[in-house]
């Protein structure tokens, strides 16, 4: 399979961003770390909502921003999705780890999505990960760049491209 290290998309509605998230989740067979950057309202949570659909979660699994609780755990899909929002973490990686938020990385099938990873830039993510940058271009237009760090996530991008 060819090495795909980066894919670029432009979406014109929240529904299109969700559809892209759904496609990414279908390309992830199991276990992935997904770091999502982009200003407030850029579409990160919308993307995760689509990912849950791609994991064949029942429609009553409602995806909302975990800004105040830091982490939501969504079961009911093909694998568990851990949705973390580091926006309000003031103490960096130490606070993140003390809150038990690193433990989900040990779930062998889990998909971990992190909004605002730059708030915990001192966390040393080990191993393979997917990085997504959301850019707010116009009221309804978002540029979405998805990058792979290693072989496994590169294979995910190759499947996403198909
Ligand atoms: N192309 C688009 N992609 C994603 N969201 C969009 C798009 N166009 C408009 N929106 C709106 O922007 C907002 C994105 O919010 P959200 O997904 O919570 O962003 P974030 O998690 O990055 O703060 C929603 O109100 C959504 O309806
Ligand atoms: Mg959000």
Layout of helices and strands:
Elements: E1 6-11, H1 14-27, E2 32-37, H2 44-54, E3 71-74, E4 81-85, H3 92-98, E5 111-115, E6 130-138, E7 141-148, H4 151-161
Parallel strand pairs: 2-5, 2-6, 4-5
Antiparallel strand pairs: 1-7, 3-4, 6-7
This protein binds adenosine-5'-diphosphate and magnesium ion.
Description:
Helices cover about 25% and strands about 25% of the residues. The protein has about 160 residues and is α/β, with parallel strands linked by helices. The protein has a single domain (about 5-160), classed as P-loop containing nucleotide triphosphate hydrolases (Rossmann fold, 3-Layer(aba) Sandwich), CATH 3.40.50. It has a 7-stranded mixed sheet with strand order 1-7-6-2-5-4-3. The longest helix has 14 residues, at about 15-25. The radius of gyration is 15 Å and the shape is globular. The mean pLDDT is about 95. Adenosine-5'-diphosphate binds near residues 12, 41, 43, 44 and 65.
